[in-house]
Each structure stands twice: as structure tokens, then as C-alpha cells.
């Protein structure tokens, strides 16, 4: 066991183990399979699996599958893929639906103890009689039904005798409670819908507040960790367990959700982005889903490191996106091979280059000799980045200018002698002279150009589609209401690039394209005939984590 007391939850767990309040650590991660996981879920996953790992415990992956209308096997599978990718192994998986029969029995028990009743008010009347934060609610006219009547009605609800919405089972607590959640909350509703696991076995489904605490107790969860919005539900969590015959009562402990700047954090909202075609799918590289981030090229280790850095507290607030990108760069900097790609090609013709071409060698990673070398060709026709040439350069411009010189990385020094333009004024080609004695590694020219730029050989470079992403939302805090208006209309730019052939042939999926960023081969669309890359993150980084 490695004790790591970096937050209040780990302190609490250590104390509970010392005092004997817990005799072992069991946590759970309880997603509803109604969408793919997002970076907010990663915080909960790293916490639940993290503490279990540190304190020799285990973590159940438990699907909270109590709403058949929104859930599916696709999401069940996607969630497992994402947790495994993040690097965690679960106990189970278990499903709330595994416990439907037990849950039903506990509901009957509440009825028999006169702690629950069948209410036949329409949903809107239940809402209207709930009261407000300042005013108490009013009792349902069905609150005084006899135990026998309630049992009979509840059994007939289960048997399928009633239509959706005609009856619900409610806890009998206190319509005047200061806590609105305690005002006779609904425990079961009728829903004639096929469930992705139980099919048509059930037409009544338990509510989250009734289900969650019982599943925690049945699984022997030692610490039920959830986000702060459930703090006001804790009295109900405790009430349910206190009013049924169950011999174990886990403590619920709340921590703050992760909010990230420039994005929403909700499966429901992401689902509408997918359905309405604002993105290409749940794994669109612009999506803050784990599937999207994986396809974008974010390493799982960078996401774990991000979760470690944000920590676990009770204070809300939005985390800067730059911290996540910092973690991504930090990991890729150490691991990703380097190569050259030109995103916006400008042709350069070397007027004094004789012969066909020559071979040059360059390290895959200058700090990591183990990664070895790749071969590239050099010839009289090259491409450089259009932005690496300026006819009227700003002050301190260090790249190529008319009459100026620049070094081609791993190659030679070139001097620009002529700018060839099309009729519309667009620069078509640069005619340059190269300095034969300036070859990298054996330079005897004595010249000292100020800049070094990347390039590719036009004769061997491979055309590639490169997808460049901007933020999905323009608004630092896109509200749930107007989040479609907050979408950035230019969040995807496609570049018609030329890349070194070695990049395409390499087994590596993530690469640094020198000077332009970290890129990944697109997991869906990349083929060696038609290479497609996603930019994971640009190189520039002025961000310093606090
Ligand atoms: P969504 O609204 O995106 O569906 P949810 O909270 O309803 O989110 P669940 O599938 O019920 O999603 O969540 C599973 C677990 O992940 C819960 O314990 C929940 O508290 C946690 N979780 C969800 N979003 C966040 C977040 N932004 N930060 C931390 N934990 C989160
Ligand atoms: Mg939910």
C-alpha cells in the first residue's frame, strides 16, 4: 500500500481504515450508459480507481441503467473501451438492472412499513404540489391509501396493467421538509419500454435516488464518491437505507465536478451535437469526450496527469484548457518521434542543384538516440511553408526573404534569388541558389543564417490531409441554453499538406511535425494511400502551470 494523502478524500479513507470504520476499500464508478464518457468523467474515474489502487481496494464499474429510453449497448461498450484505455481495470461490470428484483422487493418492504405509497397524480400536479425553496409542498390526496391498497396497486403497476404516467410509487417522508428532495420523492415510474438488457421483463423502473444507495450497499461500497450536486440528495440516500432491512450503509462523500473552459460537460448536450450534425460523431477530435481526445491524439497518461494536477476539492470553478494541453505536450515532447511536414506548401526550385537527388539522414528524436534515424531525400525541387517566406518581412523576421538566406533543417543553406508570381499576384514559386558546402553536419561555408526552416522534397513527399482544430466553442462558458450559438463555425480547417514519406511508413501513430505541432494518424480515415492526420496540439506554449 502506498499512502498518498493529497486530498480530503484520501485523508478520510486513511482515517476510516485506521479507526476500523472501514475494513477494506471498495469504490464504484457509476455511469449511465446514455452516451460516451467525457473528460469530467475522467476526474471521477481517476479518483475512484486511484484511491482503490492506492489502498489495496477494488472499484466496480457499475452501469446505472434505470432509464431504458436513453440507454444502449453501444454506450455500454464505449464506456468500457474508454476506461480500459485510461489504464484502469474494474471489478464487474455490474448493472443496476442486475438488481431490479431486489430493488422491487425493497420497494414492497417500504410499502409494508407504510413508508411508501402509490400516487396517482399526473406528473405536472406532483411538480406543482412540491412547493418551493421557501414554501412547503402539499400532501398528495393519495398519501393515505392503505398498505394493502398500495401493495395491490404497486403489484399491478409491475404486472403492466397501467399506462405510462398514471401512477408512481413515492416515498412517504415530509412535504414540509426544508430539503425539496425529501418531499415524498418518486421512487418508481411506469415506462413501457424495452430495456437493453432486461428486454420487456419490466415496465416499472426505479429512480436514481432509490437505486443508487441500494446498489452501493449491496456491493459493499466503502466510500460512495459523487459530485457536489448530490449533496442535497444525501439525506434521501440515508433515508432509503435507514428504512429497509439492509445491514450495511455506505457513506456518501461529495467532491466538485470538473468544469473546463470553452466547453460544456454533459452527455445529453454532446448527444445533441452528434444528432444535429454539428460534429461528425462522439469521437470527433474536437469533442471533449475520451473517444474524441483519443482520436485527437491525447495520450491517456496526459489525461491522468491532468486529473492529478487539478486535484479533488469541494470548490467549483472552471479549469483552463491550457492546463490539459500542457499535460499533452509534456507527454508527447518526451515520446513522439520528429519529422517534417509542410502544411501550406510553396515550391522552391534550386537553380544550381545538379544531379537527381541525394539521401539525407535525420534522427527520429534528437534527445533519444534509441529511436534511430530516418532517411529523406533532397533534390532540386522542394516545398517550404508559405509562411516561411515574406516579400516585405516585418522587423526581426528570421526566415526567407528576397535576397535573404535560411537553413533547411538537416539540409543546406539556400538563398532566394527570384520570386515567381501568377497573374493574380499570388507567389507560385521561389527560385533559389543552394550553398553546396553548407550541408548540415559538414558545413564549411562559414555562413550564419538567422533562421532554420522545415521542408520536404517535392519529388518524394506524400500528399496528406491534415485536420487542424480550433476550439469547438467560442464562449469561455457556453451556457447549456444557448450552447449551439456558442459553437465556433471555423473549428475545423483542412490543410492539403506534403509529408516526409518516412512518416507514412512509420509504425508510430503520434509524431511531432517540426515547428507545427504534434499530430496523430487519424484512427478512422488514415490509409497509406491517403494519409490523414489530426493536429493534437500546436507546439507553442506560454502556459506555466501554477
Ligand atoms: P452527464 O450529465 O454528462 O450525463 P452525469 O453526471 O449524469 O453526467 P453519469 O454517467 O451519471 O453522468 O456519471 C457517472 C459518474 O461520473 C458520476 O459519479 C458523476 O458524478 C461523475 N461525473 C460526471 N460528470 C463529472 C464531472 N464533470 N466532473 C467529475 N465527475 C463527473
Ligand atoms: Mg446522468
Give the number of helices: 13
What's the shape?
Answer: elongated
Give the helix proportion (percent range). 25-40%
Task: Specify the biggest β-sheet.
Answer: 7 strands, mixed
At CATH's second level, what is the architecture of the largest domain? Answer: 3-Layer(aba) Sandwich
Distance between the termini: 29 Å
Count the E strands: 27
Estimated share of beta-strand residues: 15-25%
Q: What's the CATH H-level homologous superfamily of the largest domain? A: HUPs
Radius of gyration: 31 Å
Neighbour order of strands in the largest sheet: 12-25-26-27-23-24-13
CATH topology of the largest domain: Rossmann fold
Low-pLDDT windows of residues: none
Q: Report the top-level CATH class of the largest domain.
A: Alpha Beta
Structural class: alpha/beta
The ligands bound in this entry are:
adenosine-5'-triphosphate, magnesium ion
Secondary structure layout:
Layout: H1 8-19, E1 26-29, H2 39-54, E2 58-63, H3 73-86, E3 91-95, H4 100-112, E4 116-119, H5 123-128, H6 147-159, E5 168-171, E6 186-190, E7 204-206, H7 208-218, E8 224-227, H8 234-242, E9 252-255, E10 259-260, H9 267-275, H10 290-296, H11 300-310, E11 318-319, H12 321-335, E12 338-339, E13 341-342, E14 345-350, E15 357-363, E16 373-379, E17 381-385, E18 405-408, E19 413-421, E20 427-435, E21 452-453, E22 455-457, E23 462-469, E24 492-499, H13 501-505, E25 510-513, E26 517-521, E27 532-537
Parallel strand pairs: 1-2, 2-3, 8-9, 10-11, 12-25, 14-20, 18-21, 23-27
Antiparallel strand pairs: 4-5, 5-6, 6-7, 13-24, 14-17, 15-16, 17-22, 18-19, 19-20, 23-24, 25-26, 26-27
Amino acid at each position: 500500500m502506498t499512502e498518498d494523502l493529497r486530498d480530503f478524500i484520501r485523508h478520510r479513507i486513511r482515517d476510516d481504515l485506521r479507526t476500523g470504520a472501514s475494513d477494506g476499500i471498495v469504490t464504484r464508478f457509476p455511469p449511465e450508459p446514455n452516451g460516451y464518457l467525457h473528460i469530467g468523467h475522467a476526474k471521477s474515474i481517476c479518483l475512484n480507481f486511484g484511491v482503490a489502487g492506492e489502498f489495496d481496494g477494488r472499484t466496480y464499474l457499475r452501469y446505472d441503467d434505470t432509464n431504458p429510453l436513453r440507454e444502449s449497448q453501444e454506450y455500454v461498450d464505449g464506456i468500457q473501451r474508454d476506461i480500459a484505455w485510461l489504464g484502469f481495470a474494474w471489478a464487474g461490470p455490474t448493472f443496476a438492472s442486475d438488481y431490479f428484483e431486489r430493488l422491487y422487493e425493497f420497494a414492497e418492504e417500504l410499502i409494508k412499513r407504510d413508508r411508501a405509497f402509490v400516487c396517482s397524480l399526473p406528473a405536472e400536479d406532483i411538480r406543482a404540489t412540491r412547493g418551493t425553496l421557501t414554501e412547503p409542498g402539499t400532501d398528495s390526496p393519495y398519501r393515505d391509501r392503505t398498505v394493502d391498497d398500495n401493495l395491490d396497486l404497486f403489484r399491478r403497476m409491475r404486472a403492466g396493467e397501467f399506462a405510462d404516467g398514471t401512477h408512481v410509487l413515492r416515498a412517504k417522508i415530509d412535504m414540509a421538509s426544508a430539503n425539496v428532495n425529501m418531499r415524498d420523492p418518486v421512487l418508481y415510474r411506469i415506462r413501457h419500454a424495452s430495456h437493453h438488457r432486461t428486454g420487456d421483463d419490466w415496465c416499472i423502473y426505479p429512480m436514481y435516488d432509490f437505486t443508487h444507495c441500494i446498489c452501493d450497499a449491496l456491493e459493499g461500497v466503502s466510500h460512495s464518491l459523487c459530485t457536489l450536486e448530490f449533496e442535497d440528495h444525501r439525506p434521501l440516500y440515508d433515508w432509503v437505507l435507514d428504512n429497509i432491512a439492509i445491514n450495511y450503509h455506505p457513506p456518501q462523500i461529495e467532491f466538485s465536478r470538473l468544469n473546463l473552459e470553452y466547453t460544456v460537460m454533459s452527455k445529453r448536450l454532446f448527444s445533441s451535437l452528434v444528432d444535429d450534425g454539428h460534429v461528425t460523431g462522439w469521437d470527433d477530435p474536437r469533442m471533449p469526450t475520451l473517444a474524441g481526445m483519443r482520436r485527437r491524439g491525447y495520450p491517456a497518461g496526459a489525461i491522468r496527469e491532468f486529473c492529478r494536477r487539478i486535484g479533488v476539492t469541494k470548490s467549483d470553478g472552471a479549469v483552463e484548457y491550457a492546463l490539459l494541453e500542457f499535460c499533452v505536450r509534456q507527454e508527447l515532447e518526451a515520446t513522439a518521434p520528429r519529422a517534417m511536414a509542410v502544411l501550406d506548401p510553396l515550391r522552391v526550385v534550386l537553380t544550381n542543384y545538379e544531379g537527381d537527388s541525394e539521401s539525407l539522414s535525420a534522427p527520429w528524436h534528437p534527445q533519444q538516440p534509441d529511436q534511430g534515424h530516418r532517411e529523406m531525400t533532397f533534390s532540386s525541387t522542394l516545398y517550404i511553408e508559405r509562411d516561411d517566406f515574406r516579400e516585405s518581412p516585418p522587423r526581426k523576421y528570421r526566415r526567407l526573404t528576397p535576397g535573404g538566406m535560411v537553413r533547411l533543417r538537416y539540409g543546406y543553406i539556400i538563398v532566394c534569388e527570384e520570386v515567381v508570381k501568377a497573374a493574380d499576384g499570388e507567389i507560385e514559386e521561389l527560385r533559389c541558389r543552394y550553398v553546396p558546402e553548407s550541408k548540415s553536419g559538414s558545413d564549411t561555408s562559414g555562413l550564419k543564417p538567422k533562421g532554420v526552416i522545415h521542408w520536404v522534397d517535392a519529388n518524394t513527399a506524400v500528399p496528406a490531409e491534415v485536420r487542424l482544430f480550433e476550439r469547438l466553442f467560442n464562449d469561455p462558458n457556453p451556457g447549456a441554453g444557448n450552447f449551439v450559438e456558442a459553437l465556433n463555425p471555423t473549428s475545423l480547417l483542412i490543410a492539403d499538406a506534403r509529408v516526409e514519406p518516412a512518416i507514412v511508413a512509420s509504425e508510430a501513430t503520434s509524431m511531432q511535425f517540426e515547428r507545427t505541432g504534434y499530430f496523430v494518424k487519424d484512427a478512422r480515415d488514415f490509409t497509406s494511400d491517403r494519409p490523414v492526420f489530426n493536429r493534437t496540439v500546436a507546439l507553442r506554449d506560454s502556459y506555466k502551470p501554477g
